[in-house]
Specification:
Layout (H helix, E strand, L loop, with lengths): L64 E5 L3 E2 L3 E4 L1 E2 L2 E2 L1 H16 L4 E4 L11 E8 L2 E9 L5 E5 L3 E4 H16 L3 E5 L6 E3 L4 E9 L2 E12 L4 E6 L1
Antiparallel strand pairs: 1-15, 2-10, 3-9, 4-5, 6-7, 7-8, 8-9, 10-12, 11-13, 13-14, 14-15
Pfam families: DUF4333
InterPro entries: DUF4333
Protein name: DUF4333 domain-containing protein
Length: 231
């Protein structure tokens, strides 16, 4: 069969001619990687500028230190009769120490130990020890006569951890006007035996936003006074 060509048009052009090949050095034939002169077609990398700055912590408003007085519990003097022949009744002394501490301070003591075979004599002083959540407390047992009458006392001051947290929240709110909540890490202890320089780490955080927080150190003295200072 004889093929007929249109003599008026060169071969390979006209309505069905293939597209021209891109020029060397232009990946897509338009002079830029995606045809718009920039990697994403809008003249700048994706992301629309710099990310927003993180919000400023409002709890950082605490400055310096705050001194607060806690409601603390101590022991008064208890009078008891501890007669057991010619010596003090040691077992009864230990029972009275437990009862006295629970009644006056609301604190449970364990592992109470008093010396044995203490002879009856007016003015004789004995020292007993006990534990409050792993903290040692000492008690003084003084004989008021030679018939077994004694007084039991202790210089220990007990501070509830929940009272420290409540005081921190109250003082922080009063000084900054922020609605906050506080927590203090006293380990497994719910009660602290006050001593000079006793420190407890605490955290104050905005209500509803625990990420907005500040670290605070609570320092307690032997009388149960506490001061708070930002770390």
């Amino acid at each position: 069969m004889t093929q007929v060509h249109n003599a008026g048009q060169p071969h390979g052009t006209g309505p069905y001619a293939p597209p021209a090949f891109p020029a060397p050095g232009a990946p897509n034939g338009y002079g830029a990687p995606n045809g718009y002169g920039a990697p994403n077609g809008f003249g700048a990398p994706a992301g629309f500028g710099q990310p927003p700055a993180p919000p400023k912590k409002r709890t950082g408003a605490i400055i310096g230190s705050i001194l607060a007085a806690l409601v603390v519990a101590g022991l008064g003097v208890g009078a008891f009769f501890l007669f057991s022949g010619s010596v003090l009744d040691t077992a009864e002394a230990e029972r009275q120490i437990v009862a006295l501490t629970e009644e006056q301070a609301g604190v449970t003591v364990t592992d109470v130990s008093c010396p044995e075979d203490v002879e009856l004599a007016a003015g004789t002083v004995s020292t007993c020890t006990a534990q409050v959540e792993g903290q040692e407390v000492t008690y003084t047992v003084e004989q008021t006569d030679d018939e077994g009458n004694v007084t039991i006392s202790s210089d220990a001051v007990f501070v509830q951890v929940t009272d420290v947290e409540a005081s921190l929240t109250e003082q922080f709110t009063a000084s900054t006007g922020l609605d906050v909540e506080s927590s203090c890490d006293a380990g497994d202890r719910s009660v602290l035996v006050a001593s000079d320089g006793l420190q407890v780490p605490c955290v104050v955080s905005a209500v509803g936003d625990p990420t907005d927080s500040a670290d605070v150190t609570a320092t307690i003295d032997a009388e149960g006074n506490v001061s708070f200072e930002a770390v």
